[in-house]
Amino acid sequence: MKKLIFASVLFMSAFFAQAQVSVNVNIGTPPNWGPIGYDNSRYYYLPDIDVYYDINQSVFLYDNSGKWIRDRRLPSRYRQYDLYSGYKVVLTDYRGDAPYYYHSKHRAKYPKGYHGKPQKNRGEKPKGDNGNHYGNDKGNKKGKSDKDDHDHDHSNGKHH
Fold it and tell me: Are strands 51-54 and 43-46 parallel, antiparallel or unpaired?
């Protein structure tokens, strides 16, 4: 009987240990253009273009006429923006799925042109690419030809 109880406890321990590992695997990987040293953060705020980046989901969050959009690509008006050289505010004190609830606070605290302490990117900037078509560009060649990119508006629209 003791052997059965011991075997049951051992099995349950192994099961819960496996469950713990699978929970930790779901955390997103920061993009190459993200700053080094913030692996446990979920969001960046990009003050120059007033856009958030969700590391876990590898998507940008931006305001589109009062509606917050989640997209793997930046809106067309920011396609020329260089994610590697732009400043990223790492939101370390926020958890949840909607950092834009604090948007007015973020805009006031981190206005366009804001630069805090110096940052170093996680990866090198690829030649001829500013990393702005897809948020998480870790060795990703996008899986599209250059022809596919010509179907999108890449104009540099006005910032508001």
Answer: antiparallel
CA 100 – CA 107 distance, rounded (Å): 10
Taking the C-alpha atoms of residue 4 and residue 61, their distance in angstroms, rounded to an integer, is 53
Q: DSSP of 70-137, one letter per residue?
A: EESS--GGGTT--TTTS--EEE-S--SS-GGGGHHHHHHHS-TT---S---BSSPPPTT--S-SSS--
Nearest to residue 53, comparing CAs of 38, 67, 37, 73?
73
Contacts of 4 (CB under 8 A, 6+ apart): none
The 3-state DSSP class for residue 52 equals: strand
Assigned token pair, 21:
């590992």
CA angle (79 as vertex; 130, 64 as ends), nearest 5: 140
Cα separation, 21 vs 23, whole angstroms: 5
CA atoms in the 13 A half-sphere facing the CB of 39: 3
pTM above 0.70, yes or no: no
pLDDT in tens, 101-142: 999 999 999 999 999 999 999 999 988 766 665 554 444 443
Query: Which tens digits make up the pLDDT trace of 41-67?
Result: 999 999 999 999 999 999 999 999 999
